[in-house]
């Protein structure tokens, strides 16, 4: 398909249209040997809510292209609940950046803290199985604008990191170590 015959991107949408909330509680099978929430459990939930935000934004299938960062800022303990909040913070032609904020709340004191933040990138997939154009995004609140302000810079960093990862992967061996 030539550049001129590619479908046009749909009209832009507001960040709020992709916003997702999910609240959970820490149970005994969710904790590690430090008596805090397993990082992998948190990461799984982050990917889940982010994928919902991405699909709400483009209204088609998406695939996770990268987890750009997961910054664990404070531990989440068995006395806490945790609330995930995600929204689309930037889009490219077919890519969607989603911001996820995780707030821990001590269920006894009511104290709340940002426990983690994350940026993930998804690619929209059309019915033909190929990347599909996505709507632009319009931030409205101060927080949305703050998160969106550096999105172009993060996009460039992703491109550099991906190129370096591909270069490294091309130099790695794939044989079994015992062969």
TrEMBL record:
<keyword id="KW-0378">Hydrolase</keyword>
<feature type="domain" description="HotDog ACOT-type">
    <location>
        <begin position="16"/>
        <end position="128"/>
    </location>
</feature>
<dbReference type="InterPro" id="IPR040170">
    <property type="entry name" value="Cytosol_ACT"/>
</dbReference>
<comment type="similarity">
    <text>Belongs to the acyl coenzyme A hydrolase family.</text>
</comment>
<dbReference type="Pfam" id="PF03061">
    <property type="entry name" value="4HBT"/>
</dbReference>
<dbReference type="InterPro" id="IPR033120">
    <property type="entry name" value="HOTDOG_ACOT"/>
</dbReference>
<protein>
    <submittedName>
        <fullName>Acyl-CoA thioesterase</fullName>
    </submittedName>
</protein>
<dbReference type="InterPro" id="IPR029069">
    <property type="entry name" value="HotDog_dom_sf"/>
</dbReference>
<dbReference type="InterPro" id="IPR006683">
    <property type="entry name" value="Thioestr_dom"/>
</dbReference>
């Amino acid at each position: 398909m030539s550049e001129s015959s590619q479908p046009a991107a749909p009209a832009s949408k507001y960040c709020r249209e992709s916003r997702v909330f999910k609240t959970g509680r820490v149970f005994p099978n969710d904790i590690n040997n430090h008596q805090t929430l397993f990082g992998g459990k948190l990461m799984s939930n982050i990917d889940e809510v982010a994928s919902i935000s991405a699909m709400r934004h483009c209204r088609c299938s998406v695939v996770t292209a990268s987890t750009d960062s997961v910054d664990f800022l404070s531990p989440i303990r068995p006395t806490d609940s945790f609330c995930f909040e995600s929204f689309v913070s930037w889009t490219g032609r077919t890519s969607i950046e989603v911001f996820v904020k995780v707030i821990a709340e001590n269920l006894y004191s009511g104290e709340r803290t940002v426990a983690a933040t994350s940026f993930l990138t998804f690619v929209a997939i059309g019915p033909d199985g190929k990347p599909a154009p996505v709507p632009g995004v319009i931030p409205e609140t101060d927080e949305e604008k703050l998160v969106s302000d550096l999105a172009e810079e993060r996009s460039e960093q992703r491109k550099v990191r991906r190129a370096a990862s591909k270069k490294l992967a091309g130099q790695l061996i794939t044989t079994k170590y015992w062969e």
